[in-house]
Amino acid sequence: MAAAPLPATPRLITFDTYGTLIDWDSALRAHMAQLFAGQGVKLNVAEFYQRWYYGFALPAVSGPFQLYRDLLKNTMAEALAEAKVDFDPAELDVLGDVMAQADPFPDTVAVLDELKRHVPLATISNSQRDILQASAKKLGDPFTYAITGEVVQAYKPDRALFDLVMERAGVEPHEVVHVAQSQYVDLPRSVPLGMPTVWINRQGQTLRRETPAPTAVLPDLTGLLSLLGLVPTGEARS
Prior knowledge:
Elements: E1 12-15, H1 24-39, H2 45-60, H3 68-82, H4 89-93, H5 95-101, H6 108-115, E2 121-125, H7 129-138, E3 145-148, H8 149-152, H9 159-169, E4 176-180, H10 187-190, E5 197-200, E6 216-218, H11 224-227
Parallel strand pairs: 1-2, 1-4, 2-3, 4-5, 5-6
Helix pairs in contact: 1-5, 2-3, 5-7
């Protein structure tokens, strides 16, 4: 199906948070690197991280619901066990805190600060409330609405998260712009729902054949204002 066109004037912009706005991958990889160094483990951290995410964490979001802190801990324990790595459970208990303390990407805060002057912003996040609240503070608390998997007891790509944010904002799918990095949990839901979708392809991925094509693709957030036809505050429209 063809992606919906961008609205002339969006009534709401929704964001995925982790991987789109917050660099949680770097934070979690750094934590695992410290764990491996402390244990004398010689595994390649980047390769292990990819195996954990695609082999354990991503499938878990479609499994029986568990709080995201538990999902992080349980799936990382499974990946470490597969790799035959001994670990201190306390190292995994703090993964949710590591996620909450992860920093925004360099382009994120300024763009959100400008966008919220024009359009209400929301986040639809596969996390839980306390983690997202900490991240939102790092982002300057830009969100009018914040929906997590904890609220609906399900994770993206379940449509319940998307439906709830649109219900609360009183908008229809074509009036929203969804901005997200994940072609695994965001695009497969937002595009079929009729939400114009901007794929922030930070990792330079190739779109999978089974993933519906987004409305537009950007390498980061810096071009988002221009794409949406929004003039930064203080700049005259030519």
